[in-house]
Structures are given as C-alpha cells and as structure tokens.
C-alpha cells in the first residue's frame, strides 16, 4: 500500500516517470496519420497544458517518442495527440486499440504566444502535420475571438488526401470571422483549390503586417521560406514564431540529443521567435 502511494506521488512529480493513460478514442486522419485521445488512469481529472507544448508518449515494450499536443487547452480532461507513422514506436502505437494503456510524460516545452498576441492580427502557417501543434492555439483563440484582429490560416499539404482535420477546417471555414486558404503540392482531378507551396499564399493573405503575430509549423525549409515571405510583407521577425523539432529523448535538457546550436529544443523550445533561430536555420549542417 505504501509502495503504491509512493509510486503515484513520484509519477505525479517526477518528469522522468510516465503516468498511465488509457486510449479513449482513435481517429484515422489520413493513410499514414492518426489521432489518439487519452484519459488518465491515475485519478487526475485534468491534464493542464499550453498550446504548443508536447508530451513524451511511451508504448510499453517498444519505446518513447515526443508528440505535440493537438487537443484543446480549454478541455484538459482529454489528452489528444496527432502523429504520423514514421518509425517503430509510431507503428506500434497505430496498432493499439481502445482501452490499451500507454505512458505519458509532460507537458514539456514553450508555448505559442496566445495571450501576448491579443489585439493583433494572427497568421497561422502550417505545412502537413504541422497543423497539429497549431490546432490548440486556434482552439484557444477562437474561444475568445473578440480579443484578436483578423485571423488567417494558410495550410499546405502534399496532396488532398493528406489534409488533416477536414471536418474542423470545414466548420471553421463556415465562420465569418477567419480566413482559411489550403493548397496542395500535387492535385488530382477532384481538387479545385490552390496548387503549389504554401508560401505562395502569403502575398495575397488579408492581414496588416505591421500589426501581425505569425505562428508557423512545418518542415524547417518551409518555415524558413515562410518567414522570408512574411518579412517581405513587412512582418517583424520578432513577431514570427516557429515550432522546432529534433530527436528528443529526455525532454528535460539532460541527454543533449535535441541540441540545436546553443539551445535545447525540449527545454528552451519547441516554440521560438524566428529572430532567435534565423541564423541557425540557414546552416544546413546543423
């Protein structure tokens, strides 16, 4: 009994010990991307987090990976993660069923500047699965819509089949208080939208560059050229925020796997002002 209480206490306070979570729901987003919804098995009613943070998800007997939280910060009773099948752990995670248990450590890392952006126009630029880390910020901002100026979401995917969160995008697009533009790299005969890289959408996006906060997530090359195009429009690089990704193992800045220049992505990131990372992103060897 005493041992069980000690284990629960350590799990709740030690960032290196995973808590136990049950899979409540699984959603297939595309042929290689899925969403898992988790609820705690350890008596925690909620799992507070900030938009932009990530967790370490542990599939018992397989391994552990960092995954951004893609759920609603205003509803922390359910923990939501969206990931793509790219390795051993994500392949094993895709095979799990409702009711199975996985370990969760977190939340870790820095967050999107949701509160600091009040009163400004907001531009979200997502590439592929980069929409998942941005979704919590969209949830939070749309819940207090009157506190922000124009809101624009620019979303680029490889193909129409790779578009994530289709129902939510359609729901948001039906609103009259935000603009959504979607583009794909490769179109099929059923696609009648934009074709091309997401940066091509920036010159015609409706926002005031002198009063804009931009939040960007996607492949590094995409974020770099997105920041360049935003600056061409007149957006201050200090007002452009990006979410970085590296091979994170410990999530507390100890192991050094995620070092990028002088910073550790797990501890100092993953969200950074672009001005802080600009020179490092230009170095291909890092």
Task: Give a concise summary.
This protein is an alpha/beta fold. The chain has helices spanning 2-13, 88-94, 131-143, 166-173, 220-233, 265-268, 274-281, and strands at residues 19-28, 33-40, 54-59, 63-68, 79-84, 101-108, 121-127, 151-157, 179-184, 194-195, 212-217, 240-243, 259-260, 263-264, 271-273.
Task: Please characterize this protein's 3D structure.
The protein is α/β, with parallel strands linked by helices and 286 residues long. It folds into two domains: 2-108, Elongation Factor Tu (Ef-tu), domain 3 (Beta Barrel), CATH 2.40.30; 121-281, Nucleotide-binding domain of ferredoxin-NADP reductase (FNR) module (Rossmann fold, 3-Layer(aba) Sandwich), CATH 3.40.50. Helices cover 23% and strands 29% of the residues. It has seven helices and 15 strands. The chain has helices at 2-13, 88-94, 131-143, 166-173, 220-233, 265-268, 274-281, and strands at residues 19-28, 33-40, 54-59, 63-68, 79-84, 101-108, 121-127, 151-157, 179-184, 194-195, 212-217, 240-243, 259-260, 263-264, 271-273. The protein has a seven-stranded mixed sheet, with helices on both faces. A six-stranded antiparallel sheet has the order 4-3-6-1-2-5. Strands 13-14 form a two-stranded antiparallel sheet. Strand 7 (121-127), helix 3 (131-143) and strand 8 (151-157) form a beta-alpha-beta unit. The chain is globular and about 50 Å long. 39% of the residues are buried. Mean pLDDT is 91; it is low at 1-12.
């Amino acid at each position: 009994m005493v041992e069980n209480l000690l284990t629960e206490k350590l799990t709740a306070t030690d960032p290196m010990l995973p808590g136990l979570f049950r899979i409540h729901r699984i959603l297939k987003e595309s042929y290689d991307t899925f969403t898992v919804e988790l609820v705690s098995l350890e008596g925690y009613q909620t799992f507070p987090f900030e938009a932009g943070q990530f967790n370490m998800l542990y599939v018992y007997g397989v391994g552990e990976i960092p995954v951004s939280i893609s759920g609603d910060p205003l509803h922390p009773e359910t923990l939501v993660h969206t990931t793509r099948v790219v390795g051993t752990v994500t392949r094993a995670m895709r095979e799990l069923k409702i009711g199975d248990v996985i370990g969760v450590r977190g939340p870790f890392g820095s967050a999107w500047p949701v509160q600091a952006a009040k009163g400004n126009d907001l531009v979200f630029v997502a590439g592929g699965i980069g929409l998942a880390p941005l979704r919590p910020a969209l949830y939070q901002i749309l819940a207090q819509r009157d506190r922000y100026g124009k809101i624009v979401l620019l979303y680029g995917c490889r193909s129409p089949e790779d578009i994530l969160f289709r129902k939510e995008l359609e729901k948001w697009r039906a609103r009259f208080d935000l603009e959504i533009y979607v583009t794909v790299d490769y179109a099929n005969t059923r696609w009648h939208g934009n074709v091309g890289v997401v940066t091509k959408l920036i010159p015609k996006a409706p926002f005031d560059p002198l009063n804009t906060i931009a939040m960007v997530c996607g492949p590094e090359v995409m974020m770099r050229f997105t920041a360049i195009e935003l600056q061409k429009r007149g957006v201050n690089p200090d007002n452009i925020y990006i979410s970085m990704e590296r091979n994170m193992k410990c999530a507390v800045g100890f192991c050094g796997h995620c070092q990028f220049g002088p910073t550790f992505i797990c501890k100092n990131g993953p969200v950074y002002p672009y001005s802080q990372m600009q020179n490092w992103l230009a170095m291909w060897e890092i």
